[in-house]
Amino acid sequence: MAALFAGKALVANRERDAVETERELSLALENKVLLLYFGSGQCPRCRRFSPLLKEFFVRLTDEFYVERASQLGLVYVSRDETPEQQSAFLRTMPRRWLALPFGDAFTRELELRFAVSEVPAVVVLKPNGEVIAGNAVEEIQRLGPACFRNWQEAAELVDRNFLLAEEFDDWASRSITDPIRRLKYKLDKTAEGKSKGKRREEGEESS
């Protein structure tokens, strides 16, 4: 799915850093069902639907509700009128959401590609980019998180064997410090061994 956004930058929700390298896009999007949410914080229909989508996403990805986050990603494709409006809307949405930068010309290309004429619209994509649902708004309203199982089966997802982003960061930090801890442990054990040997020698001399 990262191929869809190759050469593009995505904005991490409420973060200044852009998700733009091939590795970053792969970590964020590969082997996931991807939702493209075309919406606006000012659209009355979007204001009614967005809280439902937020709850839908959170219940599938937040550890408060699930032991392991579902293989689900979301990119917000904005029809907001100003960057301030887009930022204000995203601040009310989950941090794991990604977004196209405000005013990005790729927005129009996506609208044409997936025949989006009005908002709200949620396009559901397989990891290879094939469309599962052209607009899942009604399905999400009707079934809630239960509809993800249908998408998961349609997408034929490979069972994920990589870590979540937060876990990966923790693992990375541990992997950097582990050699230092192991070296310290080795030095401590060496010093301890020398100390024991010295005490043994002193004991033999005294006897």
Automatic annotation (TrEMBL):
GO cellular component, one term: mitochondrion
Signal peptide (residue range): none
Pfam families given in the database record: Thioredoxin_8
Gene3D superfamilies, alphabetized: Glutaredoxin
Gene Ontology terms: biological process: photoreceptor cell maintenance
Every Thioredoxin domain range: 4-142
Protein name (record): NXNL1 protein
Organism whose genome encodes this protein: Cochlearius cochlearius (Boat-billed heron)
Name of the gene this protein is made from: Nxnl1
